[in-house]
Amino acid sequence: MAARKKVDHVCRKCHRVLDADKEACIICGDSSLSTDWQGYLIIIDPKRSEIAEKMNIDLPGRYALKVR
Amino acid sequence: MTEVDNHYYAIKTTSKQERAVADSIFRTIERRLLDIKVHSVIVPEELKGYVIVESPESHSRIQELVESIPSARSVVPGETSLEEVQHYLVPKPVVSGIEEG
Ligand SMILES: [Zn+2]
């Protein structure tokens, strides 16, 4: 795919998906970011989501399932 | 966590629009454009052309949601289970800072 828009970065530590212009994670502050990630997860209501519980996520937002 | 009755529905999407559909569901729920509850949206890499929503709502309510989301086509009849969805999750470790290997 040649004409792909800028790839979002993912924090290697907490798996949060960040906008392409971010240089560090907005949640944990870690600057180890990756563009090589797969699977996508959006947590809307962490208190009621069993998926959030399984993934140890307590903040709403966008996450990657797999990060390299 | 309190006892919740969550359902898991698979939504068929236009090819390669899985993430766009997930984002658009997120926006719709967050801005309360519809009175429908969705707790999470899962887009497994392995599952091309589908997203999974975790929701306490009925199948017909999710169908209503799908009708307002561009590139979302239909709700797959029936439900999927948490067990099935879990196969697509790769849990990150609770303790961070430990090197693998
Ligand atoms: Zn982070």
Automatic annotation (TrEMBL), chain A:
Entry binding sites for Zn(2+): 11, 14, 25, 28
GO BP terms in the entry: regulation of DNA-templated transcription
Pfam families the record matches: Spt4
GO MF term (any one): zinc ion binding
UniProt keyword list: DNA-directed RNA polymerase, Metal-binding, Transcription, Transcription regulation, Zinc
Family annotation (SMART domains): Spt4 (SM01389)
Domain Spt4/RpoE2 zinc finger: 8-68
Gene3D superfamilies: 2.20.28.90
Gene Ontology CC, one term: DNA-directed RNA polymerase complex
Family: Belongs to the archaeal Spt4 family.
Subunit structure: Heterodimer composed of Spt4 and Spt5.
Function statement: Stimulates transcription elongation.
Protein name from the UniProt record: Transcription elongation factor Spt4
Organism: Methanocalculus chunghsingensis
Lineage summary: Archaea, Methanobacteriati, Methanobacteriota, Stenosarchaea group, Methanomicrobia
Gene: spt4
